[in-house]
Amino acid sequence: MDCLNRLEIQQYIDNEVSDEVKSAFFEHLQNCEQCRFLWEKSQTEARETQEMISLTMGNNDHLTIPAFVPIKRNIIQKRWYRYSSVAAGILLILCIYQYRTMINERNERFVRARMEVERNLYESDLNKLWNEKQSIITITDAEGNLIYMNY
Amino acid sequence: MNFEDIYKKYYRRLYGFAYQYTYSKEDSEDFVHEAFSRLWHEFQKGKDIQNVQAWLYKVLLNLIRSSKSRNLNMTSKLKQIETESARTEDFQREYILNEKKRIINEELNYMANEEKEILVLYNRDLKYEEIAQILDMKASSVGTTLARAITKFRNNLKTKYNGLFE
Fold first, then answer.
1. What is the C-alpha separation between A40 and A13, in angstroms, rounded?
2. Phi-psi region of B137 (alpha: psi -120 to 50; beta: other; left: phi over 0)
3. Chain A window 34-93: which residues touch B at a Cβ cutoff of 8 Å?
4. CA atoms within 13 A on the CB side of B88
């Protein structure tokens, strides 16, 4: 049998090999001094490492176990999160649509009023100088409400 | 197995495991409770879990990984551990023990996540198969990683603090 490598020794220490392999390893360790040295070294290393790490775990034997209280908030929260994003999206689209229509309406009214002013100016007496012109300008919005008038 | 029995059997082990990451009593309790409540929900749904211990460890580890508390300033918490029981009769021995704890914790935090996790899990009498299940790795590579982690951990301690861990 060939000499053992580090992995095989680790598996042997942790009892992770089948019984046949285990007996073969055991036999080999009896005969091979090099492998025995490596095995002993690895074993002490593993044991000491475990001891060191268990130092940091603290002693939990006296720890009192609190009573388990199941909480159902988990499921409720999940549902709420799932639908809230969809609702927020719909609300946002509605808001944008409403805003766009408002802007459009306002622009339309403004354009109509402006055209009326230009027409009034144009239809006043064309043969006079601009400072002698007498024109009445009325500005009304789309519904016919008076916004401005000059004499 | 009944849920109550599982809760009583594994609570202390999971608490110790969580404590090794958070260094805080409250955080550990919260994480463990969350893990158990997930198990409770699984039981309510009527699901059958093959290896409950490995399942719990896996859930707990994922919770700890995903939380921000892991990135908290570890050094301040390590100092807390150091001064926890400074006023005792056997002051010197206590001091050396606390110093050792602090150094080991520091050294574990310096190591790669996978190596730290495998070392901490190795201390809990878990089989390679269970460790592989918890850490989402191949069962065949557990031995290699473990051997490498142990050697690295030992060498780091030896080179930095020669004599303290004889």
1. 10
2. beta
3. 42, 45-46, 48-50, 52-58, 60-61, 63, 65-66, 68, 70-71, 74-75
4. 14
Query: How high is the ipTM of this complex?
Result: 0.74
pTM: 0.63
Q: What is the pLDDT along chain A (151 residues), one digit of tens a residue?
A: 778 888 888 888 888 888 888 888 888 888 888 888 888 988 888 888 888 888 777 667 677 778 887 776 555 556 677 788 899 999 999 999 999 999 988 887 777 777 766 666 666 666 767 666 666 677 777 677 777 777 6
Closest CA to A44 of B56, B151, B63: B151
Q: Nearest CA of chain A to the CA of B144: how many Å?
A: 6
* Contact residues on chain B for A71, CB-CB shorter than 8 A: 37
Q: Does B41 touch chain A (CB under 8 A)?
A: yes
Site of tokens 């159902």: A72
